[in-house]
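RETRY 2/3 - previous attempt timed out on the joint model. Re-submitting the same 617-residue input unchanged.
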Amino acid sequence: MSATTETSPQGSGATDTGRTGPLVPKAPKKRSRARGASIASSVTMIVIGLAFLVPLLWVVLASFDTEASLSVAWPDTWSLGNFSAIWNAETTFRPLLNSLILCGGATVVTMVTAILCAYPMSRFRFKAKRPLLLTIIFSTGLPITAIMIPVYSLFVQVNLIDSMFGAILFLGASSLPYAIFLTKGFMDGVPIEIEESAWTEGAGVFRALWSVVIPLMRSGLAVATIFTFVSMWGNFFVPFMLLLSPENLPAAVTLYTFSSQYGQVAYGQLAAFSIFYSLPVVALYLFLGRTLGKGFAAAGGVKG
Amino acid sequence: MTTTAPPAPAQDAPAPRRRHSKLGDRLTLSRALPMVPAAFLLVGFMLGPILYSLYLAFTDSAIRGDGAEDTSFVGFDNFIDAFTDADFWNSVALTLVFTVISAVIGQNVMGMMLALLMERANRVISFLVTSLVIAAWILPEVVAGYLLYTFFSGEGSLNTILTSIGLPAQDMLFTAPILAVSFANIWRGTAFSMLVYSAALSSVPGDVYESAALDGAGPVRRFRSVTLPLMRPAIATNLMLTTLQTLSVFGLIFIMTGGGPARQSQTLPLYMYEQAFSYGQLGYGTAVALLLLLIGAVASLVYLRLLPEEDKR
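RETRY 2/3 succeeded.
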């Protein structure tokens, strides 16, 4: 496989322009060394890529193979049998709808409150600003897993266990620190001068936010919203602890119970369901392209 | 708000403008109003449970049995129980092994390697490989757990590959489950480090390398004395974030091994879950959760020391 993807070394060197960086190749020796490094890097990358590919390949191939086993294998006969077997409300549509209600609702809760909270933090001066910001950054690192027992215990006492509403509020709150941090960062990039004229015309906080600031940070908000939604969509522990009755369970939890439900595990169907369940986040990621990754990386503290 | 002293008559700015500049950009009560919903959510659903856990950890609260009817204060009993339980120490050790192998070494080194390779390798190959790495990262946790369970299992893909090239088959899920879940976490988490490091690398100015190369520094030397020092803040924050994430990994291990066989992959979150829900000991489980938080806090402090002085502020 690797032989087909490399450029053969007989080329005149026109293929590697711009890749060797600032080192201007003066001697042919240097140029060939740079190309050697490029080929070695490509080969290493292909090897790493294959390791990442195999498990992904399994889920795709197994979903089209009604005889799927645990190992990656080319299907003897390609079939949509697995998809049609799970093509019903009970197995697929209700869990996915629950996921959508849970994560969609929580994303709305998170983003609306985050935007509202970020605005004063971005625009106005106050003494507690720095400690407040540091607290928010600190709480983005708080492992939610570690507070799930007290949350469960509290939810039992206030009768919010197995309530979709309660789960939405908690999931929304748990993503809030990161969303505030991201949103405030994007909001800081919107110049304040434009709003100042809105203020002088008597626009209040909400008016200035809605008609001036939000339209100017639409792409940043898209990144923050999709990031919030994607991380909620994949969350297993929170709905696993807070929701109980089968008609409330989102896809993350029903996928876990998939194997026990049917006794003998139908791996093809499990793969097909995994694909249905993963499709929304993959689609959202493709929609955003690499900006999602950049948003993450920026928030990941490159700036410290 | 409007009862302040009359403005100086000499100013010729229009009245609304003056009103604004008098208020300045200070936060007033009405301007702070939009922060209320977020404050409500954070206090109610984050701070509340945290404070409650400080109480719960010192009680015998339980789902059934003695602590269920009337919960009573037990002092440090839960912590003493934990420190004298061999299973607890087993979980602590496994958590450290899992975190060091998969986050500190695996994700960081792999992420750094991919970020460096991305700059040199063929563009198309880089794009395809990084897309695969990112795909592994955005998949839901449960899906990732099943994918890697099938990969490592006895009849799984790994053995198909190993036997086809003449190597002996493995059964890592039974012989070394902690290694299997660690590799799984590397597979799942590398993309984050890769993105952080590739962003950090692209902000290193090119002329620094140029002058280092002119001084005769080879690639390894350039990496050690130019790249690494410049990336120290990124490395420290990335180590901290991946460590905190990895310490609290639950779903991936729960799906792949359930903590077994015989507790051989039962990290602290799984031990905590087992104690709190399988055995119903909510108070004890909360004490374990607090100890998990303590480990995270200690790790964070260590990484903060790695930050260069000027970045600590």
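Chain B has one domain: 77-311. Closing ticket.
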